Amino acid sequence: MPVMQISDLTPRQYWEQVKSNPHRAKFGFGRRPALINIDLQRAYTDLDAFKTAYQTDPKQIDYVNQLSALMRAVGAPVVWTYVAYLDSAADAGVWGTRTDTPDSLQNIKHGSERAQLDPRLQTDARDVVIHKRMPSPFFETHLPSLLTWHGIDTVLITGGSTSGCVRAAVVDSLSHGYRTTVIEECVADKHEIPHFSNLADMLLKYADVESVETVRTYLDSLAK
């Protein structure tokens, strides 16, 4: 009977090993991409203000801005999501019941500083902003119908957290039939163990994980 493999590799080393495999199959890019930027709100990006914030690549916001501009240039949709709840937290569901501290999920209130998109983000009037209450941006939002309307076949994902809402989005994106790519420098998590472990797992199962430069090249090809 096969047994679970055992390794002395760190999550980062395992990720590098998985990523470096030249024979790994890819889903690839299609002809109509959408960029989904997940929960780049101050609760998760403002390292000076909130204990819940995290950062993997210090250039993450800059890269997201660059890719968003390239998407608009080719007429492709840019989507921003954020999570927030009523003052009563009555819409948080069971996800909000495990803890109740000032930094708990259900204490991200509508209109609060924690719910605001990071001010460094360069949004545009053409972009779509989606309020979500659960990990996946596909769950009980109009994102599926939006992607159908725009004829999307490829979903590009940035944001956080890698092990949480990014992963949930990736699984749902694949389940809805989209070629899905996580942009490596543009996703972040609280700790490197879940970050690199989940990058490896998503690459092996549910998505491609590509560099900013690779995605730039793809978007440039669409422009031509």
Architecture overview:
With 224 residues, this protein is of the alpha/beta class. It is 33% helix and 17% strand. The chain is built from 7 helices and 6 strands. It has a 6-stranded parallel beta sheet with strand order 3-2-1-4-5-6, with helices on both faces. Strand 5 (179-188), helix 6 (192-205) and strand 6 (208-210) form a beta-alpha-beta unit. The radius of gyration is 17 Å and the shape is globular.
List the helices and strands and how they pair.
Layout: H1 11-19, E1 33-38, H2 42-45, H3 60-73, E2 78-83, E3 128-132, H4 143-149, E4 154-160, H5 162-175, E5 179-188, H6 192-205, E6 208-210, H7 212-223
Parallel strand pairs: 1-2, 1-4, 2-3, 4-5, 5-6
Helix pairs in contact: 1-6, 3-7, 5-6
